Amino acid sequence: MMRLVLMTAAVMALAACGEKPQTGYGVKSDVPAFQGAKDPFVAPGWKPGDKGSWEQRLKARAQNTQNDYVRMK
Q1: Do residues 49 and 35 lie in contact, with contact meaning Cβ atoms separated by under 8 Å?
Q2: Which residue from 1, 12, 36, 52 could staple onto 48, CB 3.0 to 4.6 Å apart?
Q3: pLDDT tens digit sequence for 31-41
């Protein structure tokens, strides 16, 4: 009986060591960030594919929403 319990525990411990490969999914880095999504959920005022518009939206976001000095006023 004790041997069965130990073997079960060993099998469960070794099963936790396996890891599935994490390839084929995730962010594709071969496209520049300013190319973006072309769907209705993009931020207003941003034109997908326009690098100048992308940089302008990043500056506005950093200034208006991520600057604690501006938010505290």
Answers
A1: yes
A2: 36
A3: 777 777 767 77
